[in-house]
Design a protein that fits this description.
Layout lengths: L11 H11 L1 H14 L3 H15 L1 H24 L6 H20 L1 H11 L5 H29 L6 H6 L5 H6 L3 H10 L5 H13 L4
Helix pairs in contact: 1-4, 2-3, 4-5, 4-6, 5-7, 6-7
Length: about 210
């Protein structure tokens, strides 16, 4: 089992990203309407700045990149918030996440081409350099996220040992001994004697006062 997660949601930014991505054209239209109808100079300037940002190719590229990546982050986060998640399942979920992220990484060149095709630049050479630089940067973002996940969960197998000693599960373990979890634990801690540990755990699980 993993520790209980914080009640504070971490994906509020992903919701913002998705909302802006999905309604970008409407937001541009809205800002344009404000510019043409407002009588307040400050409001007009702010609306114009937002509209130009929403139309900027660099902004649109990174908005698209994170719109593609963040759903996978949210899925992994939601799965890991379950309080009864065992080490083997966590490993599987992390592997699925990394595979999904790798697919997005491979698609970055296509994403860059699609965005670049929508925005003309003055020189072909400049457009090519922008394309290469953005693709490289986006792939580096994917690598950073993937490496962070690997580092955070590199010791996930050690949770197996913890779950063997969870008192609320003792009655369940008494009826059906957690052989798979014990195997995972002894794989991680090779100095442990599996047979002896199984006997001692069996005694613990049968003790009603625990």
């Amino acid at each position: 089992m993993i520790p209980h997660g914080s009640a504070t949601r971490w994906n509020f930014k992903s919701r913002t990203i998705n909302t802006v991505y999905e309604y970008r054209e409407q937001l541009i239209e809205c800002m344009g309407k404000i510019e043409s109808t407002s009588k307040q100079a400050v409001t007009i300037n702010q609306a114009g700045a937002i509209r130009r940002m929403l139309e900027d190719s660099k902004f649109v590229f990174w908005l698209t990149v994170f719109h593609n990546i963040m759903p996978h982050v949210d899925v992994l986060y939601n799965q890991l918030q379950k309080t009864r998640t065992v080490a083997a399942l966590i490993r599987k979920q992390v592997n699925v996440f990394q595979q999904s992220l790798e697919r997005e990484r491979k698609r970055m060149d296509t994403v860059t081409k699609e965005i670049s095709a929508s925005y003309e630049t003055s020189r072909k050479r400049k457009r090519k350099n922008i394309h290469i630089n953005r693709t490289v940067a986006a792939r580096e973002i994917c690598d950073v996220i993937s490496n962070q996940v690997k580092e955070r969960f590199c010791f996930i197998s050690h949770y197996s040992a913890v779950s063997l000693l969870e008192a609320p599960k003792f009655q369940e373990y008494e009826k059906k001994f957690p052989t798979q979890i014990l195997d995972q634990t002894t794989d991680v801690y090779s100095m442990l004697q599996k047979d002896r540990m199984k006997t001692e755990l069996g005694v613990i699980y049968r003790r009603s006062e625990i």
